[in-house]
Design goal:
Radius of gyration: 21 Å
Mean pLDDT: 84
Structural class: mainly alpha
Order of helices and strands: HHHHEEEEHHHEEH
Length: about 220
């Protein structure tokens, strides 16, 4: 808004609405991809799904739909989403960076003006940094474990990028995805659906093949949606 006040001819209402619209459209698509990935992984791992459901049932007040105020108490939900983003980042290779000066990376001399692309998918599955990198293990993001193993330094887990060029909406996206996943697990029973002759590997892309039904014990909450 400061730019619009200082340069009204450049930052018109149409320009501002266009920028905001692009941000929302981009954020909606990537958030949906992350939700599909998280639910697919949970359905493939019923023990993790059951653990998450128990956590939600314990911490969310009976008869109430999960809300933003509940999120700080739902540590396992945060672990599930972090692990889902590690295995299936919404953007595997973010926008390239233009080097403003000569630098040396891993012994390679890179001249100024070079366009640099970062494979965050590869970084977050690198066995040098992650034990069993293709396995869905939400517990690896337990805060004490993550700090001990160096996963909280911001450069091993970077689904939103890092530094000044990191996604400005990462906080909002994480909260929105947490509420959506939490609500789906709180209110519905989920079951994986596969063909009898189909073998799904851990590294496969997310699949939405699942069936769900309302949890009868949460019928009072469902009536509020």
């Amino acid at each position: 808004m400061c730019l619009q006040r200082d340069e009204p001819e450049t930052y018109t209402h149409e320009v501002v609405k266009g920028i905001i619209g692009t941000m929302f459209s981009g954020g909606i698509g990537t958030s949906v991809d992350t939700m599909v990935a998280a639910m697919s992984l949970l359905v493939k791992h019923p023990e993790a799904l059951a653990k998450l459901r128990d956590e939600i049932d314990f911490h969310v007040e009976e008869g109430c739909f999960i809300s933003e105020s509940d999120l700080p108490k739902l540590s396992y939900l945060q672990c599930v989403i972090q692990e889902s983003l590690r295995l299936h980042p919404a953007v595997t290779i973010p926008l390239p960076h233009l080097l403003s000066q000569d630098c040396t990376v891993a012994g390679y001399d890179i001249p100024r003006g070079t366009w640099l692309s970062i494979n965050i998918w590869g970084i977050m599955r690198d066995p040098k940094w992650w034990d069993e990198p293709t396995k869905f293990i939400p517990e690896r993001f337990d805060r004490e474990t993550a700090i001990k193993e160096g996963k909280m330094d911001g450069f091993h887990w970077i689904p939103f990028g890092a530094g000044r060029r990191g996604c400005p909406a990462s906080g909002m996206a994480f909260r929105a995805i947490s509420l959506a996943i939490g609500g789906l697990v709180q209110c519905f029973e989920w079951k994986r659906v596969d063909h009898d002759d189909e073998v799904i590997e851990e590294v496969d892309e997310p699949s939405p093949r699942a069936v769900c039904r309302p949890r009868l014990v949460k019928k009072d909450i469902l009536s509020q949606i």
